[in-house]
Design a protein that fits this description.
six-stranded antiparallel beta sheet, alpha+beta, six-stranded parallel beta sheet
Length: 793
């Protein structure tokens, strides 16, 4: 039987004549921090102080013993970052140049000093650029010239910390006769029967040895003979229970085991979990353009999505527990789809395992983002090799529903002045429209492939045409107000978002000793977007008066404006289902403490946007919108059952007087949207009036508000409310209109969390806010951590 010896211990990191202990898996930066050689680059301006690390060569070493008592011993690296030379006792085993691949070297009968020498990623990228020529990109760093996590080189939300190291596990594998080299599982459903077809490749030490494979799944067993280097075994599971996205059904998972046998002697075993489901992507043309609708088990979905970036700029630090925490946060916000963005990595098995269990659909970008990528060697062969490996590696996971060729590169070619600069040079089109769809079609025909995001489906339409395929909405934020989201109905919005600073305690930890201000040195260093603060201020002043010299007020209003912006988009687009079939917010998470588009900051704290997503992505949503010159109420019902009943509409003054009222009937079938015109007499007549729609006592929290003018023009009364301690939290009772009340729980205690975000209270209403992690509850302290909209001064 194949035996494995982990090689996580006993490593040292060498640079010139200096050595220090190394942790494997890990990276140079984390080893240098542990040894006290460099400061934490996440704090203050330390990022710039450690920039030299990425421009040096580094060597990992350890002793390798032997012999091992088997016919063959392989040295297996699950991940090397990125360009390295591997030698054993001075004998070169091989060279590697791709962070996204695994590597295997025959070390049978060898022992001695194992050395993994990493060349600076900068040096390699610059050498490749010199060979293939300059290519345009959104950023100046040379990330498109090697197969490495692009955002190591910095992004508009991330630091420039160019890593090197043995970033995934390493081990020795000892085996005799034969081993399983690869299993490619095709999992489908045929008329209610689950089908698992397993293509098994083997590597042999003895060509003549008779081999067989025995596979089991869900109590079904099958056996097949192995001829030469491989064979196929097929299993049928009658009446298979279907795996569903969260909110649509359960997520049954089944253990699959493949044994490689020599006679009855087991030589190797492969184990994974699978789920039975079908997935399609409906891209048929219709009266509105070209659709982009995911269909799982025949059910058409409005995808409630978030974009995922690497959760740490040092990905070797991300544990299974951290993946689970972050993805459970996503599920808790009503998310049912996570897009793994193309400037990051293919995540570890832990990520996809958790998505399988939680019912989170995964849209997987191939790692290409915001640049023209050369198609010459040495890159072209690496691209195909990494795609082949990762497509097969991730195939067992039912959560994975879409392969996507790249992020914004097809759009960049057309709109970012790449085409004239390239002058006919290769730029990646051959990958996205040639290599990658061919690999997916050959290896994983059970899943759809999209050439890019955004992508209209062909060059007949602009790549970012909102009427065709996927759309990225970045005019809003960069140039336009978020009210402009309501001017169009894209078929699928794969990126949109608005910035806000992280939680107050996160800023305090990241910027120790700094007097916080929007333009203080640390705040500016932890704002990576081009003119980010300018866009924040311009976006705020359209709706609120920008506070002068009051950081706490600025901080609250910026977080409020982020939540308002995303709400404007999602409410509008969800109300247009099925024309619009999904939204993917940019972004769920951060990789360090930074002002960014994230809903969860770099320390894992939820911003107000996170809690707003819970409302926006709930199965049922009310929204009030102007359409064709009058107010319309949309009742969005993504639940499996019908939703019908009376909606109460109240036209009110900001002083709390009810100026008009009506009860209107609404009926929204399962997975549908009902639209109701608001009676004209209930339309607010000026800045002192607003409209409230409530769905009744049996639908707590289902309320929609409409103010006809921006907040800065509303003559809000001075907010008055009472605060009292309640079991597990506080109760706030409003005596006036209290608009967008927010408890910043981390101001009570760094470990405290609130169970809700922004809430608007009418006079006489109350809300109980749960707080966990608050060691010394006190009503007056709680009042000091409460913020709300105040009258414009």
């Amino acid at each position: 039987m194949l035996e494995a010896t982990p090689l996580g211990e006993g490593w040292i990191l060498r640079h010139d004549s200096d050595t220090l202990p190394a942790v494997v898996p890990g990276c140079v930066h984390t080893d240098l921090m542990a040894a006290g050689v460099i400061p934490d680059p996440f704090l203050g301006g330390n990022e710039t102080e450690v920039a030299w690390v990425g421009r040096r060569d580094w060597t990992y070493e350890r002793q390798l013993g032997g012999p091992w008592g088997k016919e063959q011993t392989d040295l297996v690296f699950d991940g090397l970052d990125t360009v390295a030379e591997i030698s054993l006792d001075g004998r070169l085993l091989g060279t590697v140049r791709n962070m996204h691949r695994s590597y295997r070297f025959d070390v049978t009968g060898l022992s001695g000093r194992l050395s993994v020498r990493f060349v600076s990623a900068y040096a390699e990228a610059e050498a490749v650029r010199g060979r293939v020529g300059e290519r345009p990109a959104a950023y100046a760093e040379p990330y498109q010239y090697l197969r490495k996590m692009a955002c190591s080189f910095g992004w508009d939300w991330g630091p420039t910390l160019v890593t090197a190291g043995i970033w995934r596990p390493v081990r020795l594998e000892h085996w005799s006769t034969a081993r399983i080299a690869r299993v490619r599982p095709l999992v489908t459903v045929e008329e209610g029967t689950g089908v698992v077809e397993l293509a098994v490749d083997v590597e042999r030490t003895r060509v003549e040895a008779p081999l067989a494979v025995e596979a089991t799944v869900a109590g079904v067993r099958a056996r097949a003979e192995i001829e030469g280097a491989g064979g196929t075994v097929r299993l049928r599971v009658p009446d298979a229970r279907l795996w569903w996205p969260r909110g649509y059904g359960e997520q049954p998972l089944h253990d699959v085991e493949v044994k490689l046998l020599h006679g009855e002697e087991p030589l190797d075993v492969w184990r994974r979990r699978v789920g039975f489901r079908t997935v399609e992507l409906d891209r048929r043309p219709d009266a509105h353009g070209t659709g982009f609708t995911l269909v799982v088990n025949g059910e058409r979905l409005f995808a409630r999505g978030v974009n995922w970036i690497p959760d740490d700029v040092f990905p070797s630090r991300i544990t299974r527990e951290r993946y689970r925490e972050r993805l459970e946060q996503a599920a808790g916000a009503g998310v049912d789809l996570v897009r793994i963005w193309g400037g990051g990595i293919y995540e570890s098995e832990d990520f996809y395992d958790v998505c399988d269990e939680l019912g989170l659909l995964v849209w997987q970008d191939f790692p290409f983002a915001c640049a023209a990528y050369p198609e010459e060697q040495p890159l072209r062969g690496e691209v195909e090799a990494e795609a082949r490996e990762n497509v097969v590696r991730l195939m067992p996971h039912p959560s994975l529903v879409l392969w996507n060729g790249n992020n914004e590169n097809l759009w960049g070619f057309r709109d970012w002045e790449w085409e004239p600069r390239l002058a006919g040079d290769s730029w990646g089109e051959g990958y996205y429209l040639g290599v990658l769809p061919r690999v997916v079609a050959e290896l994983d025909p059970t899943r759809p492939y999209a050439a890019g995001s955004p992508w209209s489906g062909s060059w007949e339409h602009h790549p970012n045409d909102p009427a065709h395929g996927t759309h990225h909405s970045w005019e809003v934020w960069n140039r336009e107000d978020y009210a402009d989201y309501r001017l169009s109905v894209p078929r699928f919005v794969a990126e949109f978002g608005w910035q806000a600073p992280p939680a107050y305690t996160t800023l305090r930890r990241a910027l120790p000793g700094e007097e916080l201000a929007p333009d203080s040195p640390g705040m500016l260093h932890h704002q990576k977007a081009d003119d980010g603060n300018g866009k924040l201020e311009r976006g705020l002043e359209r709706h609120f008066a920008v506070p002068d010299g009051d950081f706490d007020r600025w901080h609250y209003l910026m977080q409020l404006n982020q939540a308002r912006a995303v709400a404007a988009g999602i409410e509008h687009w969800r109300s247009h289902w099925p024309v619009c079939a999904g939204t993917i917010v940019w972004q769920l998470n951060d990789c360090w403490p930074v002002t960014s588009w994230a809903a969860i900051d770099g320390d894992g704290r939820e911003k107000p946007l996170y809690h707003e997503l819970r409302r926006l992505y709930a199965d049922r949503l009310l929204t009030l919108r102007e359409r064709d010159g009058r107010l319309m109420l949309a009742a969005v019902n993504q639940a499996a059952g019908d939703w019908a009943g009376a909606l109460t509409l109240r036209r009110m003054s900001v002083e709390g007087e009810v100026l008009g009222r009506a009860d209107v009937e609404m009926a929204a079938g399962a997975r549908s949207v009902a639209r109701v015109d608001v009676p004209r007499e209930l339309t607010p007549l000026g800045p002192k009036e607003f409209l409230v729609a409530d769905a009744g006592a049996d639908a707590e929290g289902l309320r929609a508000l409409h103010f006809p003018v921006p907040d800065r023009e509303v003559p809000y009364p001075a907010p008055r409310f009472e605060v009292a301690l309640a079991p597990g939290g506080i109760t706030v009772t409003a005596r006036t209109l209290v608009r967008d009340l927010l408890l910043q729980a981390d101001r009570l205690d760094p470990g405290a969390r609130a169970d809700r975000g922004l809430v608007t209270l009418l006079p006489g209403e109350e809300v109980t806010i749960g707080v966990r992690g608050w060691k010394t509850p006190d009503a007056e302290t709680a009042r000091s951590a409460l913020y709300c909209v105040e009258p414009t001064r």
